[in-house]
Amino acid sequence: xxxxxxxxxxxxxxxxxxxxxxxxxxxEQGYYSWDVKSGNWESGxxxxxxxxxxxxxxxxxxxxxxxxxxxYYFIPLIFGLLGLFFHFYKxxxxxxAIMALFLITGLGIIVYSNQPPNEPRERDYVxxxxxxxxxxxxxxxxxxxxQLLHDKISGIGAAGLGTVxxxxxxxxxxxxxxxxxxxxDHYGSRDYASNFLNSCQPNAIIFTYGDNDxxxxxxxxxxxxxxxxxxxxxxxxxxxxxxxxxLRRKINDSPPIKLTMAADAYRAxxxxxxxxxxxxxxxxxLPQRRWS
Length: 292
Known about the structure:
Blueprint: H1 2-21, E1 23-24, H2 46-52, H3 61-64, E2 70-71, H4 75-90, H5 92-104, H6 107-113, H7 128-149, H8 155-181, H9 188-198, E3 205-208, H10 211-222, E4 231-234, H11 241-247, H12 268-284
Parallel strand pairs: 3-4
Antiparallel strand pairs: 1-2
């Protein structure tokens, strides 16, 4: 239970949640929860961060100027909590449904996946449904502020002020994230794909494995029309029938691949029927048991 709450919930969920709504220390992978210099959340509120991590004045300039350091000062979190409480106050049934979605796509996935320590990369992307759901409550923060202000300010004024205040959260997040997420002038993946495709003979087949090998090639062919005669075959998908069937078709300028195996030999439905047929045959060999 200690491992589940400290590592699974604390390190593999709350840390990722805080990245999105409180702030992020840097882009280094956090392999170990006790390593205070890599992959932690960091708000930008100095005294809070120093209680958790280290004295801000003692870190080198390279860490202070790290582009992946993004501070939100708890503002998105505050608006989200404001919208959450307002939602439960006004529409508890609806809020309960949203809360179920938030928990299932967040902590529910953590419990289900039971991730081991030292993942090969940060796994925050599997929890994006939970983060999207929390953003609904950030939006509802506008209504919450409006309700707080409408008795003191005119209806239009309260709505306008609530909107401006709540928009500070996504503005801050976009402003902080732009420098380390912008891909302007980044051409490494595109050039990699172009070099691979142009190294092939006409009508060649190039075998790839996984996303990073494959997607740049698809982009180069489909968007920039680079070597559309080369057939890209992804070995990660080669075990499924629909993908094998695609290889039998002409795609772009690449002719169909001639396969000696008949489609019925690998079609998933036929494979299941074969298993059922074998099971029934074996069942008939055991007359003392009842088989359905």
